[in-house]
Structure formats: structure tokens, C-alpha cells
Amino acid sequence: MGALRRRVLDTAKSEHRRGASAVAGAGASGPAGGIEALRARIVERLEALPRDDEARAARIFVESVLVWEFGEALLEDPGFALLVEQVDERIAADKALRLQLRGVLGDLTGRASS
Question: Which of 1, 9, 88, 103 could bond 79 through an S-S bridge, CB–CB 3.0 to 4.6 Å?
Fold first, then answer.
């Protein structure tokens, strides 16, 4: 788990050092097929869920974004599930962030957020 955290932090620091414009540019073309590929992947996975499964929807979003950003190899890392769980917990603990994520998920699925 420590190696995974270091990898994520090192990548984030590297992106930060390159500057906001470089990060924005990377998001437009995207690490793994572009932002539209990420969006399509999330929507595809969310459509398989029951409408009221907000916890699983949030987890799908977090998993998808992390894999998109850091690569498919992350799925093989034994610490990946724990990392996703920790991110989920942090989102759940922050009311504003939780509401933002609910809004994003609603936008992605075409479901109104409440």
C-alpha cells in the first residue's frame, strides 16, 4: 500500500510541478483515451446499477478516475481496493464534496440529484 500511495503522490506532485496548463491539457487528451473515454466508461458501469445504489456509484466513479489517471496496472495492485475505500471515506466525510459527486453522477446518468 505504501508503494501505491507513493506512486499516486509522486504523479500528483509531478503534475503540479508541470503547472495547471499542462494538467488541463493532459485531461483534454487524457491519460487513457481522453476525458470522453473516461466519461463513457463511467456511464457504462453506472447504467448497470440500481438507481438507489449511491455508495456503489461513488465507488465506481473513484475506481474509474484512478485507473484512468494512473493506468490499468493499478487494478493489479493489492492496495488498490484500500485506496479506493479511503477515497470513498474522505468523500463521505465531506458534505460539500459528497453533494458535488452526487451532482456529477446525476449529470452522467441523466438522473436528477436530490
Answer: 1
- pTM as predicted: 0.70
Q: What is the pLDDT of residues 76-91, one digit of tens each?
A: 999 999 999 999 999 9
User: Does 114 map to a domain?
Assistant: no
Residue pair 64/46 in contact by the 8 Å Cβ criterion: no
- Tell me which amino acid residue 75 is: L
Domain, as residue range, for 98:
2-109
User: Is the separation of the CB atoms in 108 and 42 below 8 Å?
Assistant: yes
**What DSSP letter does each residue of 56-94 carry, written as one string?**
HHHHHHHHHHHHHHH-GGGGG-TTHHHHHHHHHHHHHH-
Exposed/middle/buried for 109, CB within 10 Å: 0-12, 13-18, 19+?
A: middle
Cβ within 8 Å of residue 15, ≥6 positions away: 22, 23, 26
Domain annotation covers residue 46: yes
